[in-house]
Amino acid sequence: xxxxxxxxxxxxxxxxxxxxxxxxxxxxxxxxxxxxxxxxxxxxxxxxxxxxxxxxxxxxxxxxxxxxxxxxxxxxxxxxxxxxxxxxxxxx
Amino acid sequence: xxxxxxxxxxxxxxxxxxxxxxxxxxxxxxxxxxxxxxxxxxxxxxxxxxxxxxxxxxxxxxxxxxxxxxxxxxxxxxxxxxxxxxxxxxxxxxxxxxxxxxxxxxxxxxxxxxxxxxxxxxxxxxxxxxxxxxxxxxxxxxxxxxxxxxxxxxxxxxxxxxxxxxxxxxxxxxxxxxxxxxxxxxxxxxxxxxxxxxxxxxxxxxxxxxxxxxxxxxxxxxxxxxxxxxxxxxxxxxxxxxxxxxxxxxxxxxxxxxxxxxxxxxxxxxxxxxxxxxxxxxxxxxxxxxxxxxxxxxxxxxxx
Lengths: 92, 304
Description:
The complex is a heterodimer of chains A (92) and B (304). Chain A is α+β, with helices and mostly antiparallel strands. Chain A has helices spanning 12-15, 28-38, 42-46; strands at residues 2-6, 20-24, 57-61, 64-65, 81-86.
């Protein structure tokens, strides 16, 4: 299954500045694994050592917060958009 | 006209804005136990708008007033991840100015609702671009419509001036001149730059802390190497530049609530975690600035 993933500018050091990519996978974990193959290091920026979404990162599948739909086990429907965003953003 | 502390006091006399500043300085007995230095926290959540940004918000608006820039239908405009927005909205409500805030969509819900409660208008930008996206949109709005007075907290001299003339002297007086180090996070950098100007000439060492990763959860802080550089930032303001990770910040944030009764957010946790490192090595009195309270993050996963 192919989905569109939108990535934050804050990850440009591993994405090379790409903010919109196609990826494949039926679950969020599979989509992130596919992204990791193309952008090594990306997985660890989104997930912690236990494979959970880091507390300061929000992942949306369509309009749904992935945390509320099973975390990395969440289903990612064909053609959907996955968005990875900083849970917070800065200005002290 | 350059603002002075006396002029600011005169302008806000008899209003809630007179309660901005003079925040408490509290010893951290448990988190600071067994360290070489004494650890003290300055609690900026005690400001009326709930954060350190009340100081810069007040001084930036008053500076614009003194310059005659806020007459008629003019609108205060800034890009903010939230706390400055709340501060500007609060100050605007009291001083009678319209306020428009540009912030990334999906900043914590509390900030949006509090800013709206003070009658500010919000412009939400692409969350993928973070605060830098909000800055770019604020610049575009300011260039397109002359009614906007873009206070630009990242470039406004009144921001560090507020800290030079209030926060810094307060720390000196509250510690009876015993402060040896001040630890604070860097976002706009106004806090660090202003406190540095006030206290470095008195021999105090300044420790500036940044997030260790561009994608971080320390709201209000900036990863300078990858972000739009604030015009007011000057690396030379700090004696030591430290970094802090979000996980360690959040762990300390929870400890502060459980062990010290101080309910703060990730940036408060990050600053104290960095201050503990300093106090482990350095004798003296280490003052750490806690920028806001934990209530502002209740809608985020941090406290689930």
